[in-house]
Automatic annotation (TrEMBL):
GO molecular function, one term: catalytic activity
Annotated Gene3D superfamilies: alpha/beta hydrolase
Name of the protein in question: AB hydrolase-1 domain-containing protein
Pfam families: Abhydrolase_1
InterPro entries membership: AB_hydrolase_1, AB_hydrolase_fold, Stereospecific_Lipase
Listed PANTHER family: LIPASE B (PTHR37574)
AB hydrolase-1 domain mapped to chain residues: 52-154
Organism phylogeny: Bacteria, Bacillati, Actinomycetota, Actinomycetes, Propionibacteriales
Entry coiled-coil feature ranges: none
Length: 264
């Protein structure tokens, strides 16, 4: 009996075989992703087992801004991944959250850890919240710490959009009362799953008002409550001693706590 391939030329046989191999590889990748997400879901992760740390940069995606935090965490013996955002880091924040989900899957698969801790700086903190709420992060994150994140928007984005007659997608999404933020902040701002903490500075002139960076239900740390003389700007947050102390006091094995000191 003739087989289907018998009527094909050798060149076409190779083409068909190549296509089948490609399809098979794609199916295996999808199955692996599904298995990883399935294994990391189903209940709260262990809070006393710190795992790898993901650092998510802010608007524009400049990963080097997180080098000081990466150094602090690596000195504590933590495995750190600085997440590279899609494109130039000014695109749709929800797409960035879906990308973060892929990165978390990869880190959990390669490390074998039961969870990740995630630090989101500036707009990266909004990306982390979207990941937790809409992209499976609630079953993978043990701790979430956001730094100077415009969780309720910033008037600076509104001013920039007004002056320029519009701004990139992520900028539009960070306008106070944007559709994305209304949806994200409806109901519980810190949904069950991870333990939540935020840090903000009273001297931040990018996220205004600075209270926008606080979340209901989180441990909210104001830099000046820990170090009254601090004049930490938005861009200085990743290298600030209070932030470093908060990273240590919130991402350890014990319950998250505000640092007792941190002026340097």
């Amino acid at each position: 009996m003739a087989r289907p391939f018998d009527a094909l030329s050798p060149q076409r046989r190779r083409l068909v075989v190549g296509l089948l191999v490609g399809v098979g590889a794609l199916v295996l990748a999808l199955v692996a992703t599904t298995v990883v997400r399935g294994l990391t879901r189903g209940g709260p992760v262990p809070q006393d087992q710190p795992g790898p740390v993901l650092l998510v940069p802010g608007y524009g995606g400049r990963t080097a801004s997180l080098d000081p935090l990466a150094a602090v965490l690596r000195a504590e013996g933590r495995d750190v991944t600085v997440v590279s955002l899609l494109g130039d880091g000014t695109g749709d924040l929800d797409a960035q959250a879906a990308h973060l989900a892929d990165v978390a899957d990869d880190v959990l698969r390669t490390s074998g850890a039961p969870s990740v801790d995630v630090v989101g700086y500036s707009a990266g903190g909004v990306v982390v919240r979207l990941w937790v709420r809409d992209h499976g992060g609630g079953e993978q994150a043990r701790r979430v710490l956001t730094l100077g994140s415009p969780q309720h928007g910033t008037s600076v984005a509104a001013l920039g959009a007004q002056v320029a007659g519009g701004c990139p997608t992520a900028c539009e999404q960070l306008l106070p009362d944007s559709a994305l933020l209304r949806r994200l902040n409806a109901g519980d701002e810190t949904p069950a799953g991870p333990e939540w903490a935020t840090v903000r500075s009273g001297a931040d002139q990018v996220v205004t008002p600075t209270g926008s960076a606080a979340l209901a239900g989180a441990l909210n740390v104001l830099v000046q409550d820990v170090c009254p003389t601090a004049t930490t700007s938005h861009y200085a947050l990743p290298a600030d001693p209070v932030v470093a102390a908060t990273v240590r006091s919130t991402l350890g094995a014990g319950p998250p706590a505000a640092p007792a000191t941190g002026c340097g």
